[in-house]
Amino acid sequence: MVNGIERPLDLLNNSKGKEVLVALKGDKQFVGTLVAFDIHINLVLDHTKEMQNGELKRTVGLSFLRGDTIIFISPASTNLK
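Predicted structure:
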């Protein structure tokens, strides 16, 4: 057990209300505040930004990301504005 995480969804639960980086199939990346998720790893992010090569591509706002398109989710915070 690391940082109180015993199961994979514990990491997402601990990340609610925090900024996460999400990489999708098709080479897309989004950064936003994790609002909610379900057992299919469908995510709702707020203050979402689409990133490309580490730079802001566009601001999306409140968004839904479908779980079967997600490659990884990182709870690591960034300093992006």
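Summary: The CA atoms of residues 21 and 31 lie 5 Å apart.
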